[in-house]
Amino acid sequence: MRKSNFALRLQPSLLDEARKLAEEEGVALNQLINVAVAEKLSALRTESYIAERAARADLPKALRILKRAGVGRRPVKGDELSRSKRK
Fold first, then answer.
1. How many CA within 13 A on the CB side of residue 67?
2. Which of 8, 44, 64, 87 is 20 to 30 A (C-alpha) from 30?
3. CA torsion, points 42, 44, 45, 49, in degrees to nearest 10?
């Protein structure tokens, strides 16, 4: 894996919190920042993927499919609602 350097300027309070968290987690500050960036990129990509899929959705077709779900079939064990969800 190729690695590169990047000068990162953080607010002192943010850097202090990141250092504390890295120490609590038992990881290097660099590793903590790498994971945090990776998590944020993943979240943003997931958001755009879902938006892209939603734009291609055929809502009337999906509603027709949901309408017929379970029609003509008796409930099977495990289909019942738990007592806490019935209220």
1. 6
2. 44
3. 130
